[in-house]
Amino acid sequence: MREQIFESAPAKVNLALHVTGRREDGFHTLHSLCVFTELGDQLFAAPAKEDRLTISGPFAGDLPSGRSNLVLRTIERFRLKFPDHLNGGVAIHLEKHLPVAAGLGGGSADAAAVLRMLARMSSPPVTDGDLFSLAASLGADVPMCLFSTTCEVLGIGERLKPLSMFPPVHLVLVNPLTPVVTADVFQRLSSRENPPMPTLPEALDRAAMLSLWLEDTRNDLEAPATEVVPAITDVIAAIKATSGCALARMSGSGATCFGLYGSAPAAHQAAHDLREKLSGYWVAATPVL
User: Fold this and answer.
1) Which of 25, 67, 269, 270 lies at a CB distance of 3.0 to 4.6 Å from 242, suitable for a disulfide?
2) Are 227 and 254 in contact (CB under 8 A)?
3) pTM of the model
4) Catalytic site includes residue 12
5) DSSP-derived 3-state class of residue 248
């Protein structure tokens, strides 16, 4: 096993999220366009006598460091599936930069980053198929976070279609620092059988084309999430009012909202203006990977 290794855990943003049905097992089927950002949590792993987790960063206090943490559960699941692949314990340090329960897939991204690190530490090697299967058992968002690439997502999150082309765009993320329980949002969903997203253009290589396509999409969880966190309405309105904003919408099950911009200067100026207008909220500008 090598010395300390590093993996980033990029934030996941749903540019569009259509709820298309509900299976007999209670899981909802989705049709979504997901992107990942340069902004994310940072994770480090090193050999140790036993498995352990330490957490730092601006949102460290919002996470448990014990066995209820998804990072430690991920290590446990990896050892169960691959009992002879790790030599000794693993010490994980998580720098938590993303707000918790925010609709950015932060916990899933952390779990996926841990899987990538453990696969790098593993001897013998772990196949991509086995790692993907393990990711799917940890949560619906973990498989897409495992690859952290722009993709069309179907099913409950396990069917991924990576996009071969995507324009360089920038996001401003705003969260009112109110955690949202995903189950509470789905419980308030008025319709669970909704139309899927329109067909994606084959050559999605220009920001203007992306913006035009997104006009015919939605986030079906935005309305029920706003019942839980009414501030979402004001956040979206504030983002829409910034210069250069092509689209303002909520991501995932909330409460993080995003603005879409065509350039880094426009996004950074918008973030600056929003920090002044929405004092006490979390605001960040970031490019899409």
Assistant:
1) 270
2) no
3) 0.95
4) yes
5) strand
